Amino acid sequence: MMRFTRTVLLLALALAAGARAAAAQTIPSPYRYREETQAPGVFVGYLFVSPDIGLTDSTSLPMGPRSAPLFGVRYEVRASGPLSLEGSLGISPTDRRLFATTIRPDSTFGAPTDLETTVPATVVMADLGLRFHLTGPRTWNGLAPFVVGAGGMAGDIRGTFDEEEDIRPEALFRFGPSFAVGAGLGTDWFPASNASIRVEGMGRLWRMKTPTGFLVNRTAERSEWNPAVTISVGGAFHF
After folding, report:
1. Gap between the Cα atoms of 15 and 170, Å rounded
2. Where are the domains of the chain?
3. Within its chain, how far is the Cα of 128 from the centroid?
4. pLDDT digits (tens, 9 = 90+) for 113-170
5. Please, are residues 221 and 206 in contact by the beta-carbon 8 Å criterion?
6. 147 Cβ partners below 8 Å, 6+ apart?
7. Do residues 36 and 238 lie in contact, with contact meaning Cβ atoms separated by under 8 Å?
């Protein structure tokens, strides 16, 4: 009986030691698979733009919308593996400076006049983008870094103001609707399996047209691609 009891105890000790050794060899993975495929979200940030509009190859005027805060919503749907489709709508309440033209008695072009006033502008950006997560449909220590490319439309949705009534129609500046393209990078951080915080930087190019009243040759047209950069942080719910 004593021998049987001793044998049972030795087997129990051996099993316990084996289990402890197996547990010691288990290495927790830093990766976690993301089963959720859709994510509505919101974001805030800042829109950095260049308001300069070219009059000639060497001269310009700061007629366009100026840098301002940015607010928006987005919706993301996973397409396959690391790729996701995303639609977003951003709004930036800003302002722009007013300029007018002078006409000489002989009807030739005069120097631009700074009216030393600003009017409100509301820049709206509607984008459709393709997002590539570098870790695929997984997170690494809660992080999911990505690169993104997008295209869409941008423009100022405000109309004409009282301050612009005395400006000749050919000298009125209007921004958009304009096609815009962009690319950026950032990362999602998942503090929970169904919630994320996103930090993103994105650069865009959009086209702005110079009013013909400011051109020497008023029968010609002039437009150029201007840069815009957004830095944003936001949150999303995943399901």
Report:
1. 90
2. 36-237
3. 11
4. 899 999 999 999 999 999 999 999 999 999 999 999 999 999 999 988 989 988 888 8
5. no
6. 131, 132, 134, 183, 184, 185
7. yes
Q: Tell me, which fold does domain 36-237 have in CATH?
A: Porin (2.40.160)
Residue 190 corresponds to which tokens in the numbers above?
């998942």
Q: What is the pTM of this model?
A: 0.83
Give the separation between CA 108 and CA 57, rounded to whole angstroms.
20
| Spatial CA neighbour of 60 closest among 229, 226, 230 | 226
Query: Within a 10 A sphere around the Cβ of 225, how many other Cβ atoms?
Result: 13
